[in-house]
Design goal:
With about 425 residues, the protein is of the alpha/beta class. The protein folds into three domains: about 160 residues, Rossmann fold; about 140 residues, Rossmann fold; about 110 residues, Rossmann fold. Helix content is about 40%, strand content about 10%. The protein has a six-stranded mixed sheet. It has a four-stranded parallel sheet with strand order 2-1-3-4, with helices on both faces. α13 links the parallel β9 and β10. The two termini are about 35 Å apart.
């Protein structure tokens, strides 16, 4: 067992008699140290907010933690890079997700692991509990059932339902693509984009690229290029079937402006990189080993921009740049759903923030002195406290514009000031 593995196991266990196992617990937000406080926290005082909510269900946002509470829900069928390991085996990941919500955006979250893989049962259970929360974060649910589960829950539930495995990666890579387009002078509608991996995240990314204006997308699954002659495609893949003679990753890479890897190690070769168009971009997002290592890819192209899912390389494609702040903005305006416009607003805010001067503490956290907008810095750092203000406010404003916000008379500048105070408090 490696030292890091043992340290990780120790991290997840209680370290003293006053500690608990796992990574999360309950935070009490109101005092309960006197008889008077006890009488308000529970009986008889608790009856009054109950009666107010009975009269108007929307006041649950005023008298309970609903407006700052997200459920992280999984069946354990597609956990990180581990696959179908079971619902309880996935619990450490879901607890970790809850930590990220709280640490980065002050959003309370609880993990719920479902002991079922049945699509109908998952939908029924989540729909039944959704009103307890301000939002639902679906996590690590395998494709293709994840598409149906999210789509149907979005129709049923009165709170935002967001499958982060799909949309988180899409939001971040779209932000990177926006900035690379600016650097290269290329236009979205002129790009040839290759997506290696036709799972939940690959399809979501491709759909966001379409919204950005990309028209030429070649998608590959484990059997090769998804083309119009194939008869083994699910409904999601069918929408990306194209009329082409390309069959292999090598075929698809020729002349490509961008390759997005959401598959596994060594799926992108140096020959493929050589065959790409000028000023190409590669997002090699497989973890822990990318589809191609940055130094190897750069050894054959000096005009390449590359990002990975790893924090030890430049341009990290990290979902933590998205979901905490997307939910923060959605929760604060009491949104009933997360729209395509809200996701694109998050991408554009991330792209814009990358152009701002990087705070010294952020550069120090990365031990870098070259964090200036350019090929080695196209996406903000997760340690940048400004993400809370930039992304959450953009998402909230988009929710208001789309008519899915429950708040009235939204004041964007006042909200930004509130977020800035929140960010300052967390320093």
């Amino acid at each position: 067992m490696s030292t890091f593995e043992q340290e990780s196991l120790n991290y997840h266990k209680a370290q003293n008699e006053f500690d608990t196992n796992g990574k999360i617990g309950t935070l009490i937000t109101k005092p309960c140290d006197t008889v008077q406080e006890l009488s308000m926290a529970y009986s008889p005082g608790v009856a009054y907010p109950c009666l107010e909510i009975e009269k108007d269900i929307n006041t649950a946002y005023d008298y309970t933690n609903k407006g700052n509470l997200v459920a992280v829900i999984s069946d354990g069928t597609a956990v990180l890079g581990l696959g179908d390991i079971g619902h309880l085996a996935g619990k450490p990941v879901m607890e970790g997700k809850c930590i990220l919500f709280k640490s980065f955006a002050h959003v309370d979250a609880v993990d719920i692991e479902l002991n079922t893989k049945d699509t109908e049962e998952i939908i029924k259970v989540v729909a039944a509990i959704a009103d307890t929360f301000g939002g639902i974060n679906l996590e690590d649910i395998g494709a293709p059932k994840c598409f149906e589960i999210e789509d149907r829950l979005k129709e049923i539930c009165n709170v935002p339902v967001f499958h982060d495995d799909q949309h988180g990666t899409a939001v971040i890579t779209t932000a990177g693509l926006i900035n690379v387009l600016e650097m290269s002078g290329k236009k979205a509608e002129e790009l040839k984009v290759v997506v290696i991996g036709a799972g939940a995240s690959g399809i979501a990314c491709a759909n966001m690229y379409k919204q950005l204006g990309v028209k030429n997308i070649t998608m590959l699954d484990s059997k090769g290029v998804i083309h119009s002659g194939r008869t083994d495609l699910n409904e999601q893949k069918k929408s990306f079937a194209i009329d082409t003679e390309d069959r292999t990753p090598e075929d698809a890479a020729k002349g490509a402006d961008m390759i997005l890897g959401l598959s596994g190690p060594e799926q992108i070769t140096t020959d493929m990189v050589k065959s790409m168009a000028s000023n190409p971009i590669i997002f090699a997002c497989a973890n822990p080993t990318p589809e191609i290592m940055p130094d190897l890819a750069k050894s054959v192209r000096d005009d390449l921009i590359i990002g990975t899912g790893r924090s030890d390389f430049a341009n990290q494609v990290n979902n933590v740049l998205g979901f905490p702040f997307i939910f923060r903005g959605a929760l604060d305006v009491r949104a009933t759903k997360i729209t395509e416009n809200m996701k694109m607003a998050a991408s554009r805010a991330l792209a814009a923030l990358a152009k701002e001067p990087v705070p010294a503490n952020v550069a120090a956290a990365h031990k870098r002195d070259d964090m200036i907008f350019g090929p080695e810095y196209i996406i903000p750092s997760p340690f940048d406290k400004r993400l809370l203000v930039w992304v959450s406010s953009a998402v909230a404003q988009a929710a208001v514009e789309d008519g899915v916000a429950g708040v009235k008379d939204f004041d964007l500048e006042a909200y930004k000031a509130k977020l800035q105070a929140m960010a300052d408090h967390s320093k």
